[in-house]
Design a protein that fits this description.
Layout (H helix, E strand, L loop, with lengths): L5 E5 L4 H8 L3 E6 L14 E4 L5 H14 L4 E3 L3 H14 L6 H8 L1 H11 L9 E3 L3 H11 L3 E5 L9 E3 L5 H12 L15 E5 L5 E9 L2 E13 L4 E7 L5 H18 L4 E10 L2 E8 L7 H9 L3 H7 L17 E6 L5 E7 L1 H6 L3 E6 L6 E2 L10 E7 L2 H12 L3 E4 L1
Parallel strand pairs: 1-2, 1-4, 2-3
Antiparallel strand pairs: 5-8, 6-7, 6-8, 9-10, 9-12, 10-11, 11-14, 12-13, 14-18, 15-17, 15-19, 16-18
Length: 412
């Protein structure tokens, strides 16, 4: 019989291991060999060191681990691990999200086609098509107008997103698509097959995200986050909870999110759903069946009193109680992306000052001296985040920018 106190955890940040241990769980941890750090090993009961994005490699290793160290659930909190975890659920009959449902989230074209087929009439649709060649870009512009968006079918963190302003820009967009298909040397290419691209109708309006948790098909929006976007490259540089919007607009965002999750067939676990508040109401931008990044876990816990990452780990094994309703907000929080000039990191100044600032919630810095800083083309090109708390959203954003100003990453 499977043990309720052991899970398979696929990929993701190392700090999730401590969260699993805090819940009293043994962990069978599947990770790229180079990403398992020495300090994490004491938190791992069994390690599967392999390319978990390759199912032909992962399947026999998981089957062997299941025979030797039975586990009750397969969980992933990182984008490349979502479909593999769902495949394990199907393979071993563990319940949880199936591959069919998971792949509707990780494949943006499948999401659009699903919504076109299943979404209720009052859930707004967005014109979309696959890029099949340079001429398809011009045809889409003629049909849906300019500007429009081109982005990879899979991937995350605004990687490869392009805004096509007019017909003359289709040439540049097509060259960019070909470049990314050929491999750009970007680390993201190692985790995703960036070969298919989708075109989407452009909707004007501010961007928000709904941080939800689903309990057997009942969806609870834990927080509504305001995304602050760099208009140059569509990167989400800032996040704030609660989002600054009217009660009517917030209710519309929440209602659209729950209807969307119903249409997608999603029933259990966390989701991070991005919505544009357009002229005619909320429109689904995209969604991920995981907890959002940018230190949103820390922010949600500080403002709403619940840790969605611990919930994602504990819910499949019955260690988490279902939320009866949306949790009330207590204050506010904001996070901001750390950036630096392109080059090689020489030194980092002010990190201690940021850590010890009274309002700091969390700091996640991904680089150290000797690391490379790439040109700032997407969120993956950022260097981490700083999150702070405040009595209200305006103050939290102001404090976050001020706290971030204490930190400087020097490059050469």
């Amino acid at each position: 019989m499977t043990r309720p106190d052991r899970i398979l955890l696929i990929g993701g940040p190392g700090y999730q291991l401590q969260k699993a241990k805090d819940l009293g769980l043994d962990v069978v941890y599947c990770q790229f060999e180079e990403d398992l750090r020495p300090e994490q090993r004491p938190l791992v009961d069994t390690a599967i060191l392999a390319d978990y994005t390759d199912w032909e490699i992962l399947r026999p290793l998981v089957e062997k681990a299941y025979q030797e160290r039975e586990f009750t659930a397969a969980v992933s909190l990182t984008e490349p691990g979502l479909d593999p975890a769902a495949r394990v659920n199907d393979l071993l009959g563990l319940g949880g999200t199936s591959y069919e449902v998971s792949h509707r989230f990780t494949d943006k074209w499948l999401m659009r086609t699903r919504l076109a087929e299943r979404a209720p009439e009052h859930l707004p649709r967005v014109g979309a098509a696959l890029v099949t060649g340079q001429e398809s870009l011009k045809e889409f512009g003629a049909a849906h107008g300019y500007p429009f968006i081109v982005k990879p079918v899979n991937g995350t963190a605004s990687f490869g997103v392009m805004r096509v302003h007019d017909e003359s820009a289709t040439d540049t967009a097509w060259r960019h698509v070909q470049q990314l298909r050929g491999g750009s040397g970007h680390p993201l290419i190692d985790s995703y097959d960036v070969d298919r691209f989708i075109m989407e109708e452009y909707i004007e309006g501010p961007l928000y995200s709904a941080e939800s948790f689903s309990f057997g098909g009942r969806h609870v929006v834990m927080a509504v986050t305001e995304a602050i976007t760099d208009k140059r490259n569509h990167v989400h540089v800032g996040h704030a909870i609660p989002g600054r919007l009217s009660p009517e607009d917030e209710r519309a965002l929440v209602d659209t999110t729950t209807r969307f999750l119903d249409a997608m067939g999603f029933r259990d676990g966390p989701t991070h759903t991005e919505l544009i508040l357009g002229p005619d109401g909320p429109v689904i931008c995209e969604s991920q069946n995981r907890v959002g990044g940018a230190l949103l876990t820390d922010m949600i816990e500080a403002v709403h009193g619940h840790d969605p990452m611990s919930m994602a780990i504990g819910w499949p094994v019955g260690l988490v109680e279902a939320l009866p309703d949306r949790p009330a907000a207590r204050g506010a929080a904001a996070s901001w992306l750390i950036t630096a000039e392109e080059g090689t990191v020489e030194r980092v100044e002010g990190l201690d000052a940021v850590h010890t600032a009274p309002d700091t919630l969390a700091v996640d810095l991904w680089v150290e001296p000797g690391d490379t800083v790439r040109s700032f083309d997407g969120q993956w090109d950022g260097l981490g985040h700083v999150a702070v708390r405040g009595p209200d959203t305006d103050t939290a954003v102001e404090r976050c920018r001020a706290t971030l100003g204490k930190l400087t990453v020097h490059t050469r």
